Amino acid sequence: MGRIMGDKEIPYIVNRPVVNEDVRNFGLRRFAWVILGVVTVWVLVVVFSRWESGVARYSAPEEVCGVNVSPAALAPLLPPGRDLEQYEPQTSPEVEEIVEFCRISVDREVALSFVAKYFPSLNRTVVETYEFAPGAYGISVPGEVLIGGEPAVLGHNGSLSRAMCPARGEEAVLQVNIKYFDAEGGSAIDEERELVKALTEEYLGAVAKRHGCA
Fold first, then answer.
1. Which residues pair with 163 in a beta bridge?
2. Cα 181 from Cα 178, distance rounded (Å)
3. Are 176 and 129 in contact (CB under 8 A)?
4. What is the largest distance, in Å, between two alpha-carbon atoms of the chain?
5. Can you list the positions of beta strands (E) in the chain?
6. How many CB atoms lie within 10 A of CB 85?
7. pLDDT of residue 92
8. The CATH number of the domain covering residues in 63-210
9. What is the C-alpha separation between 196 and 71, in angstroms, rounded?
10. pLDDT score of 166
11. What is the pTM of this model?
């Protein structure tokens, strides 16, 4: 097409931008490098996060809310993470038998719970107490064992144990319930049971001594 002058058609001259191939290729390479950089950063962040999530960035404590417990007994049951916190949850005023209540959390997730109760006397054995309200103690696959020389209920994710407290009365009893929230079970169940048992023995002895029962 063009414009007509007289009996002749004069074509239009259309100015089109000329794209230099080197410029085009440079732009494509630059875009590719940006994408590669973004992907690389994302991969590094994911890898670092996974590595860090498998490492404990804290030291196991030497006590559980004031009750002396060795780090060696606690450490195997604590998950990896950055921050460890201990705290004593609020209890209802009418729950007078609770003498110790402590939770240990890692990165704001509860890992372990400890509850110690004092009773002037009990008319149920530790096994009967567990069977009366099994859901209250957080123990899966329970079995009866001896802990501190007294019958106890033990699972891979918790325990219910007792210590006699003659210094506070002929039939006085201190009862301890430990819950382990990060238990895996499966092939680790036997190892976890032994770790929970070791922690229970140490905590029960320490809390009994603290309250004049040993």
1. 174
2. 10
3. no
4. 130
5. 2-5, 8-11, 63-64, 67-68, 84-87, 98-106, 109-119, 143-147, 150-155, 158-164, 173-180
6. 14
7. 72
8. 3.40.1000
9. 14
10. 87
11. 0.74
